[in-house]
Design a protein that fits this description.
This is Prenylcysteine oxidase 1 like. Belongs to the prenylcysteine oxidase family. Keywords: FAD, Flavoprotein, Glycoprotein, Oxidoreductase, Signal. With about 500 residues, the protein is an alpha/beta fold. The chain has a domain of about 220 residues: 3-Layer(bba) Sandwich (FAD/NAD(P)-binding domain). The protein is built from 14 helices and 21 strands. The N and C termini lie far apart (about 50 Å). The structure holds flavin-adenine dinucleotide (FAD). The site of flavin-adenine dinucleotide has 37 residues, from α2, β2, β10, β15 and β19. Flavin-adenine dinucleotide (FAD) binds next to α2, β2, β10, β15 and β19.
Length: about 500
């Protein structure tokens, strides 16, 4: 299909997911829903179950369907009796939902183990962190002028605006689309940032091309496996995640998911949801979910359904929409494949220009967007449980490393990166959307009481983004059910909330 037709194609698809008659949302007598289904027990689905329980109260039955492991893209692999994060691993200190979950669940923050970073261009290390902060600043200024200051200010301004969401949500406001949500936080500026390449926004800001190539591109490669043509908004989310004040959950980030499901008293069904159909009966509008468990196929009726998994065909959720008028089409776009290879072995520091491993000071190596470079990053990783006496292994010792690459690593490539190894564990992720500035954001409301969480990933993919979407959907479902239109898509919330306080 020609590029010029794409926007039209996307608009037609979006129109097909439009909400039907608003009268169908909830019963006029104000009766609460009796059953709600959530499909997917990643952080998005688990957080949705938790927030649904908060808003709808203890009576409603919340069923969570999971076809794989609780945690989804938050997962660990075991190496030499220790567990390591193979999916989502770091959390920003300003990710307030994640912080609150950890607090409420009585989980602990995992201690941060310092380690230096370098950027490799396929031939040599072109940028390196040292032990001296002032020296690092001087070097950045020498090589890139004040680009890094401009960047820092830009990211901080965006984060400050993004933080408004927590106030809006604390006051109970919800949004019917990702566009509405972004518009309320950063006006048209945020929406425009989902539609223009990161590199264009940064150049306009006065950031140098060299800084983009040598610093920004490596960060995009490690976080999203993509280049600087990804939209500026997701680029900013990624750059926020490259700051210093980061943390993780002791024992593994996926503990948040199992903890939230438990706290929500949700019924976890180990089942693959195959189809969903609207049913109109004396009970009003309901949805029939048909699903397969280890013992066979069954179906159940629900008043409200939240789909908390990507629906793009490339991810393979397997959910079919049946009996909807007009029929639902597949959501456009696809997901980007990232391979996480966890290697227990000896890093080949010679490949990076350090023949003596004892002189290799880096814990992580990022890479520039260089043709033929077969990996995005390699980093020495710490287990999810860090004992008091833990120290990072030195490069001359056998350590555990995580390599991100766009494709499965061939044996010869592993031999290039490692002198020798004891074990190799591979996870192939459909990690995040394959971003493009021409891609429009998917809908949140697919049908009156049928919601889609993962559209938010097209603005930015991160644990906190799924958590923000989870809170939004729980609020939206609640207001829709109770016909509280004054709590949805309200304008000028910044000022309104000030006067409400
Ligand atoms: C390698 C990697 C590194 C990352 N690093 C970070 C990071 O450092 N920081 C960060 O914040 N984020 C990171 N992310 C992103 C983050 O992990 C995701 O944004 C987040 O975990 C998505 O959660 P989710 O619940 O929305 O989706 P998912 O975790 O994908 O959950 C969806 C769940 O639905 C289930 N499911 C699908 N179809 C069905 C069906 N038909 N029936 C029943 N169940 C179904 C799936 O099995 C899955 O468990 C990373 C992701 C990857 C892959």
């Amino acid at each position: 299909m020609g590029c010029s037709l794409l926007p039209l194609f996307v608009a037609v698809l979006a129109a097909r997911f439009v909400v039907a008659d608003p009268e169908e949302h909830g019963p006029v007598d104000g009766a609460p829903p009796s059953k709600i289904a959530v499909v997917g027990a990643g952080i998005g689905g688990s957080a949705t179950a938790h927030f649904l329980r908060q808003h709808f109260g203890p009576e409603v039955q919340v069923d969570v369907f999971e076809k794989g492991e609780v945690g989804g893209r938050l997962a660990t692999v075991t190496v030499n009796h220790n567990d390591y994060e193979s999916g989502g691993s770091i959390i920003h200190s300003l990710n307030l939902h994640m912080q609150e979950f950890v607090k409420q669940l009585g989980l602990k923050y995992r201690r941060n183990v310092a380690g230096k970073m370098a950027v490799f261009n396929g031939e040599e290390v072109i940028l390196e962190e040292t032990d001296w902060y002032l020296l690092d600043l001087f070097r950045l200024w020498w090589r890139y002028g004040i680009s890094f200051i401009r960047l820092q200010m830009w990211v901080e301004e965006i984060m400050e605006k993004f933080m408004r969401i927590y106030k809006y949500q604390a006051h109970g406001y919800a949004f019917s689309s990702v566009e509405e949500l972004l518009d309320s936080l950063g006006s048209s500026g945020f929406i425009n940032m989902t539609r223009r390449p990161l590199s264009d926004s940064l150049l306009e800001l006065g950031v140098s091309q060299r800084f983009i190539d040598e610093v920004i591109a490596p960060v995009m490669r490690i976080n999203y496996g993509q280049n600087v043509s990804i939209p500026a908004f997701v680029g900013a989310v990624s750059l926020a995640g490259a700051q210093n004040n980061l943390w993780a959950v002791e024992g593994g980030n996926k503990l948040v998911c199992s903890g939230l499901l438990k706290m929500a008293s949700a019924n976890l069904l180990q089942a693959q949801v195959n189809s969903i159909s609207p049913i109109h009966s004396g009970e009003g509008l309901q949805y029939q979910l048909s699903f397969t468990t280890a013992t066979g196929t069954a179906s159940e009726l629900y008043d409200i359904v939240v789909l908390a998994t990507p629906l793009q065909a490339s991810v393979g959720s397997g959910v079919q929409f049946q009996g909807f008028t007009p029929p639902f089409d597949e959501l456009p776009g696809s997901y980007h494949s990232t391979v996480a290879t966890i290697v227990h072995g000896y890093l080949n520091t010679s490949f990076f220009g350090f023949p003596d491993p004892r002189l290799f000071p880096f814990a992580s190596v990022l890479t520039t967007d260089t043709p033929d470079l077969f990996f995005n990053s390699v980093a020495s990783v710490c287990p999810v449980n860090i004992s008091a006496g833990f120290r990072r292994k030195q490069p001359q010792e056998a350590g555990v490393y995580k390599v991100f690459s766009p494709q499965l690593l061939e044996k010869s490539q592993l031999k290039t990166l490692f002198r020798s190894y004891y074990s190799v564990q591979v996870t192939e992720w459909q990690a995040c959307p394959r971003y493009s500035s021409s891609q429009r954001l998917p809908p949140v409301e697919l049908h009156p009481n049928l919601y889609y969480l993962n559209g938010i990933e097209w603005a930015g993919s991160a644990m906190e983004m799924s958590s923000v979407a989870a809170k939004n959907i729980a609020l939206l479902a609640y207001h829709r059910w109770n016909r509280q239109t004054d709590m949805v898509d309200q304008r000028d919330l910044v000022h309104r909330i000030k006067t409400e306080l």
